[in-house]
Specification:
- By secondary structure, the chain is an alpha+beta fold.
- The protein contains 27 helices and 23 strands.
- The strands form 4 sheets. Strands 3, 4, 5, 6, 7, 8, 9 and 10 form an 8-stranded antiparallel beta sheet that branches. Strands 11-23-22-21-12-19-20 form a 7-stranded mixed beta sheet, with helices on both faces. It has a 6-stranded antiparallel beta sheet with strand order 13-18-17-16-15-14.
- α4 crosses α5, α12 packs antiparallel against α13 and α17 crosses α18.
- The longest helix has about 40 residues.
- The chain binds adenosine-5'-diphosphate (ADP) and magnesium ion (MG).
- The site of adenosine-5'-diphosphate (ADP) has 22 residues, from α16, α18, β15, β16 and β17.
- The site of magnesium ion has 4 residues, from loops.
Amino acid sequence: MHCASCAQIITKKISSLPHVNETRVNYGSEKATIDFDESHTGVHIFNNEIQKLGYSLLEEDNTHDHTKQNSDNELAELEKKTHFMLPVTVVIFLLMMWDIFSKLFPQIPNLPIPMRLFNTLSMIVATVALFWVGKQYIEGVTRFIRFRVANMDTLIGIGTIVAYVYSTLITLLPQIGTLLRVPEYTYFDVTIVVIGFITLGKYLEARSKKKTGDAIEKLLGLQAKMALVIRNGKEVEIKIEEVIHDDLVIVKPGTKIPVDGVLVEGSSYVDESMITGEPIPVNKNSGDVVVAGTLNTTGVFTFKTTKIGSETMLSQIIDMVEEAQGSKAPIEALADKISGIFVPTVLLISTLTLVVWLTLGTQYLGLTQALSLGLLSFVSVLVIACPCALGLATPTAIIVGVGKGAKNGILIKDAATLEHLHKVDTIVVDKTGTLTRGKPELISIKNISDKTDAELISIIASLENKSEHPIAHAIVTHAKEKNIQLASIETFEAIKGKGVKGIVKGIEYFVGNVTLIQDLKISLDIPSFTKDTLEGKTPVIIATKDKVLGVVMVADAIKEEAIEAIKNLHALGIKVVMLTGDNKNTAEYIAKQVGIDEVVAEVLPEDKLNKIKSLQKAGMVVAMAGDGVNDAPALAQADVGIAMGTGTDVAIESAGITLLHGDISKLVKAVRLSKITMRGIKQNLFWAFIYNIVGIPLAAGILYPAFGLLLNPIFAGFAMAMSSVSVVSNSLRIKAMKI
Ligand code: ADP
Ligand code: MG
C-alpha cells in the first residue's frame, strides 16, 4: 500500500465481495482483518480481486517475516531510486531557481544553455524519472482508467504525466507550440522534481516507519533458539520447537530462558526487565514461575516446562502488541472518512481549477498564459493534495505508543483503549495487591474458644488452603511455618467478598469478615478489635453457626511506591478512589497512608460494578485497576480496565491494559503514555490537514488574481513529501519521550 486511500480501496473492494461481513485495513501496520464465511469464500478469492488493483494479501503464517522482507525490499528499491533522483532533482531544481530569478532580477544573467538543448536533456531525464522511478504512478493512472479506482499514485501520476506529455509535444513537435502560440517553455522539471521529492519523502518515510515498528522485532529477538533439556537422564541441547510440556530444562548462568515453566531445582536471580520493565533481577526459587525470553544471571536451575510455542507469555505479548498496533483508534475514523473521499474530490477540484483557468483566465490573460498557468495549477493541486500524511498520522503514533508500552511492561490491548485512557479523570483501585503488597501476614490471634491456638489455626488454615484469596495464603503460610498440621475437610465453599465456609471433622465453620459473621446472626464483639482495624489490620473471624471462636489479625504492608504514584496521578488531574471488600477502618487507614481521595469499603464484588456505573453516571471517565480475576465485571464496566499482574504470571487478555509486575507506578506511566500518544496523534492530524487545507487553494491559484502568487508544482511536491516525513518523525519522537 502506498497511502491511506489504498487502505480505503482494499476495504471497499473486499467488503463488496459476497460472504464477507467486515473488513478492516490498516495502512500503518499494513494489515487486513477480514471477517468472512469460510465455507463460501477465501483468501485466494480476495487476493485475485485486489491483485487486479495492484495489491496482494499474505496470509497470517509468517506474515511477520514476509512483511519485514517486503518492507526491506521496498526500502532497498527506494534507496536505489533516491540515489538516482536526488542529484538530478537538485540540479534541475537549481537551474529552475536560476531561471525564475533571472526573470525577476535583470542583473542575473539568463541560463547559459540553449533552450533546445536544455529541453532535450530534460526530456531524457524526465523519461527515466517517470517510467522507471515513477512507474507506480503510471500504474496508478492505468488502474484508474481500467477499474475506476484512484489513490494517491493516481493523483501524482496524472499530474506528472500531463506535465510530461505536454512538454514532450512542445519539444518534439514545435509546430503545436506555434499553433497554440505558447512559449517554448516545458514542464519536464515538474515531472522530475515532483517525482524526485516524493521519492525522497517516501524513502525517508519508509526508513522512519521501519523504526516505529521495531518493538516487535526486539520482542521477537528475545526468543531463545535452543534449549538444554534432560532426555533419558542426559543433558541434550535441542531446538526450542522440540521442547514439550513437562520437559526438564536446565538454565546455565547468563543464558536465556527458552520456554515458560516452574522452577524445580536450584535458584537464581533472573533479569525480567525485558518483559516487565523492572530493572532489578528477581530471585527465583523452587515453585516460582520463569518465563521465556528473560535472562538468567549467575545461578543454575532446572525448571519444568509448562508453556511452549505460542502459549508462552512472550508469544502472547508479541501477538497482543502486534494486534494492538494494527488496531484502529476511534480518532482515526475521521481521517479514514476524509481519505476515502479525498482522491475523487481532489480530481474534481483539479479539473475545476483547470476549467476556471481556461475560461475565466483566458478572458483576462489570454489563452496562452491561462493555459500554461492553468496547467501548473492543475498539476500542483494534484500533487499537494495527496492524503498520504493523513493516513500515517494515527497509525504511526499508535505503533510507537503501543511498542513503548510493551517495553515498559504496559500491555495495551488496542488503540481504542489507549485513546480512552487519556480522557480518564477517575481511577478506581483495589486495595489488596494494588496499594498494599498483596502478601498479608498473620499478626496476632485472639482465641476465645476451648481449643488451643494451634488447633484453631489448623481449622482455619485447612479451609483457607482451598481459597485463592491473599488472606488465605497468609494464614496457610503461617500454619506451615509453625508446622501446624492441616486437617482434611469434608465440604468447602467460598463466599464471595466475605470469606469461606466448610465442614471439618463433622463441624461446620465459617471463616471471614464481619459481614459473614453478622449474616449468621450470632453475637460478635466488634469493639474488641476496633483498635487493630484502625491501624490497618484486617480481622479474620472464625465461628461455628452458634458462636464466635476467635479472631485472627492479618496485615498487609503498604507499597512504598503507591504514595508517590497517587501523588503523580493527582498531578495529572486524576481522582483516585479505593474500592475494597475489606473492613472500613482498615481501608481508611490505608487510604490515609497513601493519600487516596475517596474510600468505598465493605463492598461485595457485584457492588464494585455498581460503584463504577454510578461514577460513570456522574459524568466521570473511569479506569479501574484490579487484580483482574475477581474484579472482572468491574474491569469490564470501566471505560478502561487495567489488570495489575502480580509477577509475570497473568492472563493478559483479561483487561484493556495489563501492567506486568503489578506496580502502581506503572499506572502513572500508562496514563502518561496515552496522553503523549494522543497529543502526538493530534499534532500529526493537524500537520497532515494543514498542508492540504492551505496547500490546495494556494495550488489552485486563489491568490493569483490579487497577488499574482501561484504555488509551483515543484514546491507542492516538496511540501507533500515533507508532510509525510514530518508526521512520521513526530510519531518517532514519542519513542524518546520520558513517561
Ligand atoms: P478485596 O480484594 O478488596 O480484599 P474481596 O471481595 O476479595 O475484596 O474480599 C472482601 C473481604 O472478604 C476481604 O477483605 C476479607 O475480609 C473477606 N474475605 C474474602 N475472602 C476471604 C478468605 N478466603 N478468608 C478470609 N476472609 C476473606
Ligand atoms: Mg481482591
